[in-house]
Known about the structure:
Layout: E1 3-7, H1 12-23, E2 27-32, H2 39-48, E3 55-58, E4 61-64, E5 72-76, H3 82-89, H4 92-95, E6 102-105, H5 112-117, H6 119-139, E7 144-150, H7 173-191, E8 196-202, E9 204-206, H8 225-233, E10 240-243, E11 255-256, E12 258-260, H9 261-277, E13 282-287, E14 293-294, H10 295-306, E15 312-315, E16 324-325, H11 330-336, H12 344-357, H13 362-366
Parallel strand pairs: 1-2, 1-6, 2-5, 6-7, 7-8, 8-13, 9-12, 10-15, 11-16
Antiparallel strand pairs: 3-4, 4-5, 11-14
Helix pairs in contact: 1-2, 1-9, 3-6, 6-7, 8-12, 10-12
Amino acid sequence: MATVLLTGGAGFIGSHTCLVLLEAGHRVVVVDDFSNGSPEALRRVSELAGLEGWRQLAPDRWVAGDGQPALLTLLKGDVRSPRDLDRAFEDREAMGDGGIDAVLHFAGLKAVGESMGQPLRYWDVNVVGAVRLLEAMGRHGCQTLVFSSSATLYGITDRVPIPETAPLQPINPYGYTKAAVERMLADVAASTAGWRIALLRYFNPVGAHPSGRIGEDPNGVPNNLFPFLCQVAAGRRQRLEVFGGDWPTADGTGVRDYLHVMDLAEGHGRALETLQAAPPQLLTLNLGSGRGHSVLELVRSFEATNGLTLPYAVVERRPGDSAISVADPREAERHMGWRTRRSLADICRDGWAWQSANPEGYRGSDRQPGRSLIQVQPVS
Length: 380
Ligand SMILES: NC(=O)c1ccc[n+]([C@@H]2O[C@H](COP(=O)([O-])OP(=O)(O)OC[C@H]3O[C@@H](n4cnc5c(N)ncnc54)[C@H](O)[C@@H]3O)[C@@H](O)[C@H]2O)c1
């Protein structure tokens, strides 16, 4: 059993990974500022993992799992704050006498369009946040890290599929911040012996846990196709806009490598085990299915799987998009025996199970009458 710190663990990918880690028998401490995540996600994770006694012990601290230390601890905190990070690394109630064995760093901002309008905010949260985290890891003697990187680093490329050795040519501030953190982590690994680091470049994570209890709950208008499509299906948005019908692809719409978020979460479990079992190293791995699907294929699959019709319109291309982006995922299989197991139909079924049961995301559950989400207990 390891004790693992998840920054941004109340968000989409972090919450699914938290469940996978708890089910594998690990203890989890989450730090999240809830700017795009919710304590309710982790309450539901604790339920799915069969942990007893989810409770709020302070305005910024929740725990679940009988016994001491708790199996799941959630702290409200900002990755840019040394004080918040020290609090997580020193939370003896959360981890007993052992320390944090490894960090999975999900916390960050991820909207490409927003990053073009607010570059400083992106550099601050994504890059300064990573610097502060690495400093805290140094103070607390933790040298194992899994970093959420992105296929956006590859920019616009004609290569299909894309190997990890492809040139990095990001074209927006979001991509630059991911490239900067990857560079910084390579420098850190080279400067001091003992680091175990995995840079995981995700392609297009979508879907939800098959229970429909946890899923993606973006603030405001979704930036990505899949959550948008789910909200159209749920009647929250009128129609889907498909950006570009004249790409050089079979049906003219963009092709992407969609991977089920549970496959991605399991990839993190595998990365953690691989890092812990092997000598110190810096691993850079694509996480994708290796298969491309066009926007229209995704729409058709969603309609067929769920017996729905989705209104859509093909509109102008969006600047900065590319025709095709598909991973070469063979290195992930070679290094950690991981590959995606779930299909596009699984993605569509599970994504809809989440959206149809939670049309307003986690906010809807806050409004359920007669049900208190949180029981505040006095701190002893
Ligand atoms: N979802 C994707 O399509 C995708 C693709 C590639 C890479 N990624 C990367 O994966 C990571 C997780 O993405 P996600 O889809 O789960 O996003 P998300 O927004 O659902 O999760 C990020 C979490 O980080 C938290 N957070 C943000 N700023 C913080 C701060 N300063 N301090 C503490 N917590 C903070 C948010 O509240 C949220 O819970 C991000 O780093 C993202 O860039 C995501």
